[in-house]
Write a structure and sequence with these properties.
The structure is a homodimer of 296-residue chains.
Chain A: E1 2-6, H1 11-22, E2 27-32, H2 34-43, E3 53-55, H3 59-71, E4 77-80, H4 85-92, E5 106-112, E6 120-123, H5 133-149, E7 156-160, H6 171-184, E8 192-197, H7 199-203, H8 205-210, E9 223-225, H9 229-241, E10 246-252, E11 258-259, H10 267-285
Parallel strand pairs in A: 1-2, 1-4, 2-3, 4-11, 6-9, 7-8, 7-9
Antiparallel strand pairs in A: 5-6, 5-10
Helix pairs in contact in A: 1-10, 3-4, 5-10
């Protein structure tokens, strides 16, 4: 799966994709200042000779070149190297030359926690700050696409809020109800939704039963949709740093998956992110997943 | 079933309850200026001697006296005679001396249309102008109570909107989704809810099927919840004046049912309204229906 690696001008930014290539997950195409990349490879004792290297002057040009390669069908994954996420996404989202779709971009954490029976997706804890209902619809559909790519045919999606009942003073509970009805009406496809669910009801069937919640999702969630970035980010970081979650991350909603690993990620997490992106790219190639937004 | 008849100082206002009494539907207690009521009875050749007559000076005093009788348990139905609806409801809703409950008051039309397979309730086409979500919850629960009183154990409630999909620009579609989730969570009890449904989907199973709507309510609705007074009032009047509906009406949500017939109603419709009010009063007496609002 050819992956355009944007400006891999740091050890982390170069080591990650090369390791992923050595494990057969991706075929990196390095896009950045040639001299700089070669000197890093030398310092890290990496053999980058098997991989194409497109020479550009600076990070912005690297982003533009990599995105152009995606548009031309030459790359099916976009990987961030050592440039700021905003700089990359700005090029991705350009209305004329970018690779946006009708869907909003959103980020999915894939998490495996020792204390929970199954791996799950947490979204969106990284891109959308205070998503409105239509953005949440796209966030759901992006996560469902990833779950499908990973082999879950009908994932269970829990829409999290602070409470499990409808309360007009807590807008997330109203959005949750609307998202469930969108799924009933085919405006969101391919998953079983329920919400609002508080975190305990979503994660633990017994907690849900105690509260008298009859839900096909409670305690069996494959996807957790958080109400906003603040809640999601804290939840994700708690899971990674205190509940010892293994984590991967990928951005969906563009024409190809985007890998946005950060310097804090472990090698294991970087490889997992590449693997997920590759699965999603494969699904897209096979036409299993479209780019279109839901109904309306 | 003792019914306090408030200020029956017109032919219509007096004839209705006496006819209902003669058919064994209610036991009227006439509350109003004695001399005026007697002279109307004489002119209409009505024998009012079997019925208690509480002499008061004017319509406002009649309302206060009738409501006080309800509070004292002496009347289980309140019937409007010849005073303005607002004047009566103002006394009903008085926080200290009225007969309000935790629920909002709402009006239900009971309609039987030759072109629809079953009688149904249309609400609220008369009291709540632009109900918010919590008011809509009460409107639903009031209508469900009436459906229960009439023998429908688990009525199907269609939440009407202009479209059947969720559209944030059409607030009624969001309220519909929230009401459905409230039913899932036990915040509304005793009915199967679905919505948003457009009128055609709600009334006609084939129309719903054509649109791909899978709904336990479509084409089988026992209760239609309208988004606001404008839509509801026009729909009700169209049904009565052009689709030849037989109609009854009752106000629920107070400590006892309130009959608000208007001068335009036929004798048949007045009697039907008394019958419905008597059924609802009987349910309340038997404790089948409480006064409490839903969860939260």
């Amino acid at each position: 799966m050819p992956a355009a690696v944007v400006h891999p001008c740091s050890s982390d930014g170069l080591v990650g994709p090369i390791q992923a290539a050595e494990r057969g997950l991706i075929k990196p195409i390095l896009v950045g200042p040639q001299a700089k990349i070669r000197s890093i490879a030398e310092a890290e004792e990496l053999d980058i000779s098997p991989y194409p290297l497109i020479d550009v002057e600076h990070s912005h040009q690297a982003a533009e070149q990599a995105v152009a390669m995606v548009r031309a069908g030459e790359a099916e994954i976009l990987m961030k190297g050592s440039l700021h996420t905003d700089e990359l996404l700005h090029v991705v989202l350009n209305r004329n030359t970018g690779i946006r779709t009708e869907r909003r971009l959103s980020h999915c954490f894939l998490l495996a926690v020792p204390t929970y029976a199954r791996p799950f997706i947490l979204t969106d804890a990284a891109i959308n700050i205070a998503p409105d209902l239509i953005t949440k619809r796209d966030i759901c559909q992006n996560a469902i696409d990833i779950a499908h790519a990973m082999g879950s045919e009908e994932p269970k999606l829990a829409i999290l809020a602070a409470v499990e009942s409808i309360n007009p003073a807590i807008p997330a509970t109203l959005d949750a109800a609307a998202l469930c009805k969108m799924a009933d009406r085919g405006q969101i496809k391919g998953a079983i939704l329920d919400g609002p669910l508080a975190f305990d009801n979503a994660a633990d069937q017994e907690a849900a039963r105690t509260k008298g919640i009859v839900s096909p999702v409670a305690g069996k969630a494959d996807i957790l949709l958080v109400p906003d970035l603040e809640a999601g980010n804290m939840l994700a970081k708690q899971l990674i740093f205190m509940a010892h979650a293994e984590a991967a991350g990928v951005v969906a909603g563009a024409q190809v998956p985007i890998v946005l690993t950060s310097r804090a990620d472990s090698v294991r997490n970087r490889l997992a992110s590449c693997a997920v992106a590759a699965l999603l790219a494969k699904s897209k190639r096979e036409g299993v997943i479209g780019h279109k937004a839901g109904g309306q």
